[in-house]
Structure formats: structure tokens, C-alpha cells
Design goal:
single chain, 60 residues, alpha+beta, two-stranded antiparallel sheet, 3 helices, 2 strands, 60% helix, 17% strand
């Protein structure tokens, strides 16, 4: 769904889902930095490993 479709959704949980996913992603990045572990994200349809150091510096 697009952001516009989510904004128009009748279900309030669906409308709030994108913000919830963003908060969860931020929490996962924070936890990875605190525990010095990597996270795996999908970029252009492929899994990409991002180290804790890369998360700290903001460099991919």
C-alpha cells in the first residue's frame, strides 16, 4: 500500500501501521548498536548486512 492509501484506510490500526514499522525499525537499529550486532535489510530486492559500526556512522 502507498502512504496515501494508508492515510485513507478506514481501519485505524492500518493507518498507524507505517509509523509503527518505522518505530520498530529504529528500535532494531538502536538494539543492534547497543549489542554490537548487524542487522539485515532488503535493498533493491536483495538482503544487505549492515554492521553496528555502519549504523553508528550512518555510512552504508
Amino acid at each position: 500500500m502507498t502512504q496515501q492509501e494508508l492515510d485513507k484506510a478506514q481501519n485505524p490500526d492500518l493507518r498507524a501501521s507505517l509509523a509503527a514499522m518505522r518505530r520498530a525499525a529504529a528500535a532494531a537499529r538502536e538494539t543492534a548498536m547497543q549489542t554490537n550486532t548487524a542487522i539485515v535489510m532488503v535493498k533493491d530486492g536483495k538482503p544487505v548486512r549492515i554492521s553496528a559500526d555502519e549504523l553508528r556512522t550512518g555510512e552504508p
